[in-house]
Design a protein that fits this description.
- This protein is of the alpha+beta class.
- The chain has 2 domains: 2-194 and 366-453, Aminopeptidase (3-Layer(aba) Sandwich), CATH 3.40.630; 196-250 and 296-363, Alpha-Beta Plaits (2-Layer Sandwich), CATH 3.30.70.
- The protein has helices at 2-10, 12-23, 35-52, 121-136, 159-165, 213-216, 223-232, 255-261, 268-275, 288-293, 334-348, 373-386, 400-409, 434-453; strands at 56-60, 67-72, 80-86, 106-108, 111-113, 143-149, 174-177, 189-194, 196-205, 211-212, 297-305, 315-316, 319-328, 354-363, 366-367, 391-395, 413-415, 431-433.
- A 6-stranded mixed sheet has the order 1-2-6-3-7-17, sandwiched between helices. It has a 4-stranded antiparallel sheet with strand order 11-13-9-14. A 3-stranded antiparallel sheet has the order 4-5-18.
- The two termini are 20 Å apart.
Length: 455
């Protein structure tokens, strides 16, 4: 792979400029105003795959945003790697908190700033450029297929059907994903587990119209007050989720597993300082590492109702709403959790209001065994590239469709991500270190080398 590494070094500046072209496309899947941008981004990536050396690349329609499929078959008898990534990005709001234009990427302080710089355009593009380097130096030892979707940030609703309908096209030996993080550049890691996700929306309705809070306050239920009370009751003072049956299927770690999990380097003081918080919270009896990796959680992601504009307006709002996400762990089923949430929320609502509860999307937890040949190949690649053996690590994040790949395609996924906590994914001022971007491109060809050598 020496030739590939030299090729990468020679073309680093071009790779960065080409990434910028992708980052400038505002492919926000959650907002219908960007539907045309989704298609434009997909077409751009399909063309980039062809330029990189793919035998074919096309934009394939779904009932939602299109999927980019590409492939290069070097030998029908060789192993096949299916690369998964997503080209959709999170909304940029609140826009006023960005220090740069989110869709005009810049390099400052050794980092690429812009929406999607890490999640997942920057990491996805590492695969395109690593693939190009191997093709250009005739060192690609495996067949490669690409499946790049445009709905990961909104639940990958239509990718499941796409996989069902294209099982033969997507046939492979392993799925390779870079949509996760490492503990640190000096402490590399491989994600071997993801939490699942259940995402809900609730609407509390009181009177049939907004009311004067002076004339009706104290006599008519205020949906905003009720909603706040109901939401607050979902987690108790010990950080435990109060939904009956919520913990029934949670797989508890053994003392030995907990000890091993907490061996990963972690500084609570540095964690608090980086977030500018006085202290942490969470489920009593567990460390911060455990709370964010192997324990379930419940969070309010948004809450609204009534008047929030400039000045004052004294009203009792007719409705109030909230979005709530629950991160799940093995062996919790996201659909069952959605049913438990709905039943509980309706049961605790007072008769003075009406409650609507709906599940927006979700996915199952995922575990990648560390004895897989592909995991060992990733481990060897990172050890050679970073100079130290990577730690197995359980991530608190979710990629719901990864568990779907296993159930539909029968394939395990290797989660070989190069993000870092400071990249601020999903937040204003998302960024991606230049060293992360280039190190990822240099490391991925080594995975192919060692995976091709496995039995």
């Amino acid at each position: 792979m020496k030739e590939a590494k030299l090729y990468i070094e020679k073309n680093k500046d071009r790779f960065l400029n080409e990434l910028f072209e992708v980052l400038r496309i505002p492919s926000v899947s959650a907002q219908s105003a960007h539907r045309e941008d989704m298609v434009r981004c997909a077409e751009h990536l399909a063309a980039a795959l062809v330029e990189a050396g793919a035998d074919r690349a096309e934009v394939m329609p779904t009932a939602g945003n299109p999927v980019v499929y590409g492939e290069k078959i070097v030998d029908p008898a060789a192993k096949t790697v299916l690369v998964y990534g997503h080209y959709d990005v999170m909304p940029v709001e609140p826009i006023g908190e960005w220090l740069t234009d989110p869709f005009e990427p810049v390099v400052k302080e050794g980092r690429i700033w812009g929406r999607g710089a890490d999640d997942d355009k920057g990491q996805l593009f590492m695969h395109v450029k690593a693939f190009e380097a191997m093709c250009a130096t005739d060192s690609l030892p495996c067949n490669v297929k690409f499946m790049l979707e445009g709905e990961e940030e909104i639940g990958s609703e239509h990718l499941y059907a796409f996989c069902e309908e294209n099982r033969e096209l997507l046939a492979a030996d392993i799925i390779l994903v870079s949509d996760t993080s490492m503990i640190g550049m000096d402490t590399p890691s491989i994600t071997c587990g993801l939490r699942g996700l259940t995402y809900m929306e609730v609407v509390v309705t009181g009177p049939n119209k907004d009311l004067h809070s002076g004339l009706f306050g104290g006599a008519v239920a205020n949906p905003a007050n009720v909603l706040a009370r109901l939401l607050a009751s979902l987690v108790d003072e010990r950080g435990r989720i109060t939904i009956p049956g919520f913990y029934d299927d949670v797989r508890e770690l053994t003392p030995a597993e907990r000890e091993a999990f907490n061996r990963a380097p972690f500084s609570l003081e540095e964690y608090k300082q980086a977030l500018e918080i006085g202290d942490v919270e969470g489920e009593a009896g567990y460390t911060t590492m455990e709370r964010t990796g192997v324990r379930p959680s419940l969070d309010i992601n948004g809450i609204w109702g009534g008047y929030i504009g400039e000045g004052t307006k004294t009203v009792i709002p007719s409705t109030a709403s909230a979005k709530v996400s629950m991160r799940l762990v093995p062996d919790q089923d996201w659909k069952r959790i959605a049913e438990l949430f709905e039943a509980h929320f309706k049961a605790i609502a007072p008769a003075s209001v009406k409650v609507e509860v709906r599940a927006l999307h979700g996915g199952m937890p995922y575990v990648s065994p560390t004895d897989l040949p592909a995991y060992r190949a990733a481990e060897r690649a990172i050890e050679e590239s970073f100079g130290r053996k990577p730690l197995p690590f359980y991530s608190g994040g979710s990629i719901p469709v990864v568990s779907g790949f296993e159930s539909i395609l029968g394939l395990k996924s290797i989660l070989m991500g190069f993000g870092l906590a400071e990249d601020a994914i999903h937040s204003p001022n998302e960024s991606f270190g230049l060293d992360q971007f280039y190190k990822g491109i240099e490391t991925l060809p080594l995975f192919y080398k060692y995976f091709a050598e496995t039995e």
